[in-house]
Every structure is written in C-alpha cells, then in structure tokens.
Amino acid sequence: MDVYTNPPSNTYSLGTLFTLPTKAGGVPAISIKSSNFPILIAAYSILIQIIFASLWQFLANLVLLFHALRDADAGRARYVALVAFWNSSNPWTAITTMGAFLCQATINGGNGRVSRPEKFHGIILFLLSVIIAFGGIAASIFIPNAMSLGPAAPVHPKSVFLPELEDIASSSSIRIDRLNAPAILRALGSTEAFKDVTARKNVDTVKTTLPGSNATHPRQRYDYRYTITAREFGLQAPLEFSHKVQGSCITEYNWLRPVPDIADPARFNGYVPFDLDPVEPILLDPTDNMTALWTQPSMGIEYHPSDEDLTITNRSFALIPQLAHAGSITASTDPWYLTEPFNSETEGFLGYRVKSGRPAMSCWEESLLCLHKTCTSVDGIKKTPLPKGLRIIVMGKFSIPVLTKIILSAGPAALKSVAGIGWTGLLDCASSTLKDDLDRLVLAAYLNSREVFRETALLGPQAGMSNILESANGDLFPGSADFVMLTGDVTAISYSSLIAIPVTCLAVTFLAAMLPLVRKMVLKAPTTNRRRASVTYAALCAGLRATQLYRMVDEKILCTPDWINRKNIIPLPPPVETMPRVLIPSFVGNAVEFQEDGEDGDGGDGGDRCRLTGADDGGRRDSSSIEIAIYSQTDAAAAFRAIRRSYLLGFNQDVQIAKRGFHRVVRRAKRRYWRNLIDGFSSSSDVFKAVRWLKFPGAFQPPPLQVDNVVYESQMGKANALRQATLERRTAEDDIANAWTPVFPPRSIPFSPEISLEEAQYATCYTGNTSPGSDNITVKLLEAVWHIIGTHVRRLFERCLTIGHHPKPFKEAEVVMIAKPGRRDLTEPRAWRPISLLSCLGKGLERLIARRLAYCTNYHW
Fold first, then answer.
1. What segment(s) does the record annotate as region Disordered (predicted)?
2. What value, to the nearest 5°, has the Cα angle with vertex 30 and ends 27 and 32?
3. Cβ-proximal residues to 669 (8 Å cutoff; 6+ apart), any chain
C-alpha cells in the first residue's frame, strides 16, 4: 500500500462519466461516494434476484414446452414431477420438491411405479433448479461487487496546478522546491511500506560484482529498470503512453583526489567527477574525536555537462557520498559504509566511523517517453500527438532524472542508514548497504514518477504563482485534466454494468409478464387440432396449476357449476349462496383426501361425519370412496357472515352487534382451549410446548448494583453510584503538573479561519449514525433543515475559529452507562462503561478542526 492520505474532496469530481484505465483498456465509469456504494450494491442485488426470478419463470415454461413437443405420452410419475415443479414458486422450493420426488422414486419407485426415463427427467429438473437457485445467489454476490472498478474518480479541472519557474535563482524556485518536497517524502515513506512485495515487482534491480574487486576497494555495478504505463499514471487518454527508464551505476575510486593549495593536504580529499571542479571536500581528522559528530552524512549530485541538452535520452550523473569519518553505532563492510574502530572518550557509545575514501557512483540513465511504439526524449515529446497539457507536465517533471530529484530534495533522508531525525551526523551502517540505498531511491523514483499527474491536483492553486497549464484566457490546455485521482472516499462503478443490469431486469421482467398473455392468446385462437404443441403447452401451463387442479376436483366430486376463468391461473368459484359447501384437505386413514365443509351443521363442537361417494355427470359412481367431514359453525359466526354479505360497508348497527357477539364467542373459545390445554398437561414436554408460545417478556432490565456491600435498586441510586465509581475516582493530583507551559514554535502553519458552506455541511451532516447530546438534535434533523440553518452554522463555526472559543453548550455531555461486552457480573460497577453524548452541532465543529489539523500534518511538514 502507498503511504498516502485521501486527497481533499475538491480535487475530484463525482457523478460524471470518465474513462478508467485498467489492464484490459479504458472502461467507462462513474464515481460515487464509498459510503453510498453498499446501498447501490444492495439495490443491484435485488435487481439480479428479480432477473433470476424471471428466468425461473422462463425455465419452467421451457420445461412444459419441451413436454408438449414430445410425441410419446408421458407416464403418471412424470406428471407428478411436472406438477411439483410447475407449482414451485421459486427454485428453492423446486429443489425441495424435486429432491423429495427423487428420494421417493429411488426408495419406493420399483415394480414399474417410476421408470428410468422418468427418474432421469426428475434429475434434470432438480439440477436446473439447483443451477438457478445457486446461480442467483452467486450472481447477486459477485456481479454487484464486480461493478466496483476501484477507488478512483476523475480529477477536478480547477484543482490542477503546475507552477511556472520564472528564474532558477528567483524565490519561485525555492517555493517550487518546497511545494514538491512533500511528494518526495511520501515516495520515500512508501518504499518502507512496500518491503519486498507489491510495487517492488514493477522495479527490476540487479547488483553485479565486477572483476578486480577486493576487500579494501569493492567494485560493484548496480543496474535498474522500470516502466510506468498509462494505467499506472492514471491517464484516461492516451492509454498507449508509457515511461521507460533504465540505468546503471558503477563504483568509481579514481575520482577521489588530494586537494592542493592547503596547509596539510594529507587531511583533505576531494571528488572530481567528469573532470569537473572538485566538490567541497570532507575534513578527515583521525585525532579529533568530535570529527564524526561534525560531519553531516549526505549524498551529493554532479551532472555531466551534456545533461543540459534535452534532446538526448541518456544522461550521466555522479553520486558523491558525503560519509567519510561519520560516526556509526555498528560496523559494516559495504563499499559505502566500510567502517573502522573509533575510540572516543566523549562519544564512547559510537565505537565505529566510516573510513575515508568511499567510492563515488558513476551513473547513467536512459529515460524514454513512448506513445504507441514510438519512443523519444523529453524534448522530442513536443512532436508527438500527445495533448499539450500532458506534454507540459511530462516535460516539467522528467527534464532531469527523477532519481537525482529524490536525492537533492531528501537531503540526509536519502540515506537509509541515517540514525535519528535531522542533521545528527550519526549512522547505523549495519542497517543498510549500497544496494539497499539505491534500491530505496530507485523505488522512490518510480513511485514519485507514477504520481506526477496526481501531484498537480494535490498541489492546488498557489497564491502569487502562475499556472503554466493555463492559456491566456484562463482555460486549461487540452489533456491537463485527463487523469484520475485515487482515494478511498470514492468508488468507481462500471457504467456498462450500471446500465445493463436495470435494462436486463426490465426486459426479462416484461417478457415474463407477457407469458400469461401469450398463453391466453393461444387458447383463444381457433384451431381444429387441439393436440397441437402450442395448445398442449398452454393447457399444461393452466391445467397443472394447483388452483386449476383444485377446481377440477371440486367440479368432479361436488359437481360445482359456474366456475369462471377455467383456463387462467386463478379460477373463481360460484357465489357462496349457490354452493355453501367446500372441499378441504384432511387425513383419512394413511392418506390425504378432500373432504366437504358445510355450513348446515348442528352447531356442535365436532360436527357430523359421513361416508359419501363422488359421481360424474353421467351418474356413474367413483370407485374410490371419499370421506367428507361436515364442520358446523357457531350461530354467531354464521349470523355475522350473513349480515356482512348484506351490508358490505360494515357500519350498520346490526353488523356491529353481530361482530361483538362473534368476538365474545371467540374469547370464550380461546379461554376454554387454554383451560383444556393446561388440564391436559401430562409431561414436562407438554409444558415446554405451551411456554414456547409465550411472548418475550420485554426489554432488558438491569439487576441491582452493589458497591462496597451497599445495594442500589433505584435508577437514581444506580446513577449516583456509577458516577462516583467511574467518573469521580480521579483527583486534581492526577492532572498534568503544568499544562499551560508556553510554547514558542519555530514557524507558523497557515490555518485560515474562513469556512466554506460546503466544508461546514460536510463536517456536520456527512457522518455516521451518531447519538445526539442533551439537546436531542440528531444529525438527520440537522441535515433536513440545513438549507435554513446552514449559513448560520457556518458563521458560528467561523466565529469560533476566529476568537478561539468553544461554546459552553458544546462542552456539556450527557453520560450514559452501557454494559461491557461478554458475560460479566452486572452488579459490579466495573461491568459498565460510561459513554459521553455530545451535541451533534459541537461534534461537527470538532470534526472540522480535526480534519484541518490532519490536512496540515500532511501538507505543511
């Protein structure tokens, strides 16, 4: 992971269509807040469930259509499977019913009851149900998550800024170096977080020992290379752009020469790279014990004179180690950190210091800027079709090797072995090697180069400095804002998935809704061949419904006339006055059969039972007898139904009287039932079954509190006891001795008291579900009336920052005690945790200040 904080919200745009660079190419996307992404995921999961529910309807219809197209007649077992499958409301129900069918077919399907093709047909239906059921769950889990393309959003054009360098010796140069320093430090900090994984795989480094190497003069070569693609840059276009870097460094001992024209030349040496003027020599004084502390370890840079030519791609430079006689707490045999024993009476804890004569590094680096298959230098990028804004950024950032920029800006931090913070002059030589330092610097150069475009947005407009990316009329040059920002506060959503899933849901749902209409049109169409496949399919769809099967049984047994909608999914029976009796399922022996329920009973509790047989229209008796139970209803219920049929509105006085009588009968029946149930208890299991029906007793009631053998039962007593035990156990002696010691900082950090309306709203309303304070004003209430109070809240916050005052109502806290998690003894005060509830408005002010402090910590080091 990178050591970067999320950029400010004004550096990126939400809700706008952009192209997100990925490994597969540019993907259209839209960014939303990460807090809204779970809601979107839930909504699209529901849409996918609806899609699979509609697909389930299609699958069921395809099964019946396949059955209708078969020429051979199906057996009874297949119709049983079809009825079970067709009447399953969802694939999970179908899995249960088809699983039961397969179990029965396997256990009891012998002797020709269920044939092998019918078993195979049941297996197919079972597998189809499993595929749809688990496919719907898998799709609702993985597809919405696959919509997320990462934490990216298009950059806001107003935040893109690249300062113009007026003169290398002017104050603008110093300001630019200061503005670029945080990016350098972030890159160096990220190298420590990467260790041996993640981004290190994008950088190739090789160390080679050269011939002629010995213990006193180790000769080594260090090669490195890396490539940064448009996807890593975050470019929306062109996606074919890349930055290729390769280089090499060799230890060079011949550049270290004595310095003439001094009193004692033996004490001074100087480096002369590329036959240039010697750099400032390092004082070598073995007799002076303070020499190691006076020396400031660092690394110098000397460029070859040809580097000023921007048309070349291969640039040479020298790395000059400023390490001679630097004190170290550990020993090392590395070429740069070769140490010798060091005895000092004043600094005896050091023990070692770096030997003089450390080799310089003669380096070259080839930097290529490639578009498609054409690679060129920094100056040659002007002739490419790259947008002008991107060309300006590239030329400004890659005019010199980024590795040298890292070293010049980091100072002592460029050396991994520097111990402590600042110019202490102390090293831990065993903690690093020449290769470790170069690995760290090359990786930092890769990370810094990768963020060059995003850093222009993080920098933001600076007062008193002109933006080189703006034209004369104040507009950005083309391509200046063609990149994306990376932040955990947003989530990029695939635009195609965002549109495709709702459209698919609407289309599939519409087609599923049209299926009943298609079947109805088929049945109404005139035809002479009633066994045609389409007619058979429509008949199966309607006839195998459980509602139609019930209608057929009712017409067969009771000869009920005047059923309507006999071809639809829901048939309707005749009026109840014409046929008062109905069929109900009941157990008869070891089977479930339909029995008749009539209203003309004798009013008894159980009713009469008789044996009847069903007859068809021709007067033939059915061979199977059907037992019909006639359940009589109470007179009050019968009267109530009769009056309700006469007065449908239900406001008539007679209806109300009958209703009260009916309720009275129901209460008596319930009372009689419970009395009989209790009197019939014969075992503990009967009691357990009855107790399971009881309702939950209510909210949690805390037990009495015991403190020092004193028991508190009242709410006020518990509150006072908890306050004394948890909040008043500290005294003034526990405070800081002198908390108001004046502080004199070396410099001030800009902290503007001006607050925008958006910043105040973001700090106050855009937060989680937090509890209100004693004023009971919640965040949702503030959000609802923000259009009225927003300006006043902003002025209040701004005034508080100006005068440095925190209002007293914001300091008042309502303390609530909650039980600590785990199984604890709630009678002890230690089992309770105090929670302070502050005003949501005051917490908004605190949140605003905290975010500003976090921002200052990262950008004003």
1. 598-622
2. 140
3. none
The better pLDDT of the pair 796, 511 is held by 796
In which band, very low, low, confident or very high, does the pLDDT at 577 lie, cut at 50, 70 and 90? low
In whole angstroms, what is the distance from residue 442 CA to residue 224 CA? 8
3-state secondary structure of 785: coil
> Which residue is it, tokens 């104040």?
474
pLDDT confidence of residue 574:
77
Q: Is residue 492 a contact partner of residue 45, using CB atoms and an 8 Å limit?
A: no
CA distance 222 to 249: 5
pLDDT higher than threshold 60 for residue 646: no
* CA pseudo-torsion sign 380, 382, 385, 390: positive
What is the amino acid identity at position 281? P
Q: In sequence order, what are the beta bridge partners of 298?
A: 322
Whole-number Å distance between alpha carbons of 301 and 408: 7
Which DSSP category does 261 fall into? Answer: S
Name which residue leads in pLDDT, 581 or 789.
789
Predicted confidence band of residue 290 (pLDDT cuts 50, 70, 90): very low
Torsion of CA 433, 438, 439, 442, to 10 degrees: 170
H or E element that contains 404? helix 402-410
Residue 200 contacts residue 194 (beta carbons within 8 Å): yes
Q: Which of 336, 365, 146, 74 is nearest to 243 (CA)?
A: 365
| 155 three-class SS | strand
C-beta of residue 21 within 8 angstroms of C-beta of residue 235: yes
Distance of alpha carbon 223 from alpha carbon 204, whole angstroms:
8
Is 80 exceeded by the pLDDT of residue 168? no
Backbone phi and psi for residue 149, each to the nearest 5 degrees, phi listed first: -100, 0
Give the Cα separation of 606 and 629 in Å (integer).
Answer: 9
pTM for the structure as a whole: 0.58
Q: Are 837 and 774 in contact (CB under 8 A)?
A: yes
Nearest to 501 by CA among 25, 20, 116, 54: 54
Tokens 């005895």 sit at which residue?
A: 343
Residue ranges per structural domain of the chain: 1-155+483-544, 158-482, 705-729+748-859
Q: What backbone phi and psi angles, to 5 degrees, belong to 32?
A: -130, 170
Total residue count of the chain as it appears in this document: 861
| pLDDT of 542 above 90 | no
Predicted local confidence at residue 645, as pLDDT: 58
Q: Which residues contact 245 (CB under 8 A, 6 or more apart)?
A: 224, 225, 226, 227, 228, 365, 366, 367, 368, 402, 445, 446, 449
Q: What is the dihedral of CA 413, 417, 421, 423, to 10 degrees?
A: -80
